[in-house]
Design goal:
heterodimer, A: mainly beta, Rieske Iron-sulfur Protein, three-stranded antiparallel beta sheet, globular, B: alpha/beta, TIM Barrel, 13 helices, 8 strands, about 40% helix
Chain lengths: ~130, ~375
């Protein structure tokens, strides 16, 4: 499984090596990048990167539980489970983030930065 | 309908009969004796126990033929002794202790008392003066029957709201109350939650930590009962299900709410998954769906601090003038610290603007 890679080299920014592409679905690896770190997650649809820093109070976001959630709905008492394996909950206050978009589910003014992860010849690279 | 200009509205005035026989005469025969006398554990009239000793309560209140300062006893007196001298154009009236019936253990007596009191409001107040608007009291023990009574009483065009007491066996976000909200929304009525009945009848203890020893403690902590209802109604989705409903907090304070909403929003951010139907922060729902009477607003020193707190959460636009006349702690417009300290640009909203955005039938 690999993420689509842009054919235009102009769009490829700095790449940070993130180890071998050997993670199973649901697994993660936290990669130091200078003064901070980025979590690389393997989910059903591929590899995704997200900053290991919660925009709320700075917890190690990527040490949180990867789970699903009750999907936003217009109907009261409609508990529909979805996004299984795609919701990252901060270990401190349990804020929910969409791993793919970085969006906080309760308050759109919060977003964790996400990164494209490129798989190439069995190796992962984070595009900064 | 009232054709006189409506520029100043009083959202909370209490009325009452001056003789319990007045209501007895309107009740079905089966309930007359209970209403007038009661027996054993069965309480008479609107009386309900346990009741706190109230040093301000006029002697004899609760006995037949006495009214004390529970309420004004005639439409004529209300218009000439309250509205006209204070330049108020119209008032929304309710019977102060009628919501007590929602905390009786039985169902049929409260249902009949509610119907009777609502009929009395219509005939003795709304039909006596076009300046008066009414509140519908309901027996929440049977929400389906209560909804029928809401639809029946709402046939009078100047009924504006359904009034519920803060003391309740369940918080008002509980889905058991939906039939009442459905009827209210359908008829264009607001829901008022008025302090009272905390710890009485079937209500739980009047403070979240148990039984206080004095009326003083109960009065101060009343806001906590209301905040339980507000939190419940927002979280359990009442406004998602009934988006045209507006809820008025009367005699529950309001300044406390500004900082409480900081807490409510904070917790929601971590617990959204429990209430996935919410689309905005709880503070947004509060601003949009709740209104508050001015009479119980907490005075601050200096007064500008009150407004700073209100504005910090956009709550200043939720306020509307309420007097609580003729209760001992009522506010005249001149004595109201909110009215006295409001910026000139806010006066129109306090007098009428907020009321119009609250009661669909007033638009």
């Amino acid at each position: 499984m690999s993420n689509p890679v842009s054919s235009s080299p102009i769009k490829v920014r700095k790449l940070v090596p993130a180890g071998p592409a050997d993670l199973s679905v649901g697994e993660r690896r936290i990669v130091p990048v200078g003064s901070y770190s980025i979590g690389v997650f393997r989910i059903e649809s591929g590899y995704y990167g997200i900053v290991n820093y919660c925009p709320h109070e700075g917890a190690d976001l990527c040490k949180g539980r990867l789970t699903g959630t009750t999907m936003p709905t217009d109907k009261v008492s409609n508990y529909e489970w979805g996004c299984e394996g795609q919701i990252l909950r901060c270990p401190w206050h349990k804020w929910e983030f969409d791993l793919i978009t970085g969006q906080h589910l309760a308050d759109p003014s919060f977003r964790a930065r996400t990164y494209r992860v490129i798989e190439n010849e069995g190796q992962l690279n984070i595009e900064l | 309908m009232n054709s006189a200009p409506l520029n100043f509205f009083d959202a909370d005035v209490h009325v009452r009969w001056d003789d319990d026989q007045t209501i007895a005469n309107r009740l079905p025969q089966s309930w007359k004796e209970r209403w007038l006398v009661g027996a054993g554990h069965t309480q008479a009239g609107l009386r309900i126990n346990p009741k706190f000793y109230n040093p301000r309560e006029p002697l004899g209140t609760g006995l037949p033929k006495t009214v004390g300062l529970q309420g004004v006893t005639s439409a004529d007196a209300l218009v000439h002794e309250w509205l006209q001298p204070h330049g108020i154009d119209a008032a929304l009236v309710s019977v102060y202790d009628a919501p007590n019936i929602a905390t009786f253990g039985d169902i049929d007596y409260p249902l009949d008392v509610a119907r009777t009191v609502n009929g009395w409001i219509e005939e003795e107040w709304l039909e006596k003066s076009p300046a008066l608007y009414g509140s519908i009291v309901v027996a929440t023990q049977s929400p389906e029957d209560a909804a029928k009574e809401v639809r029946r009483a709402a046939r009078h065009a100047r009924m504006l709201q359904v009034v519920l007491p803060t003391g309740s066996i369940f918080p008002y976000g509980n889905r058991r109350f939906y039939p009442i909200y459905e009827a209210a929304q359908e008829c264009g009525l607001a829901i008022a939650i008025h302090s009272g009945t905390e710890g009485m009848g079937t209500s739980p203890a009047p403070t979240p930590c148990g039984w206080p020893g004095t009326l003083s403690e109960m009065r101060v902590t009343r806001s906590t009962t209301f905040l339980g209802h507000l939190t419940s109604m927002i979280t359990e989705g009442v406004f998602v299900r009934f988006p045209d409903l507006r809820v008025v907090g009367l005699e529950v304070g309001v300044a406390w709410l500004a900082t409480y909403l900081w807490r409510f929003d904070k917790n929601y951010k971590g617990l959204r998954s429990e209430c996935p139907w919410l689309k905005e922060l709880p503070s947004e729902y509060t601003r949009r769906f709740f209104r508050f009477g001015t009479q119980s607003a907490e005075p601050a020193e200096p007064a500008s601090e009150f407004w700073r707190l209100m504005a910090s959460n956009g709550l200043d636009a939720t306020l509307m003038f309420s007097s609580n006349y003729p209760r001992w702690d009522h506010d005249t417009p001149a004595a109201s610290h909110v009215m006295a300290s409001a910026a000139p640009g806010k006066i129109e909203a306090l007098k009428i603007g907020t009321a119009r955005s609250t009661y669909p039938r007033l638009r």
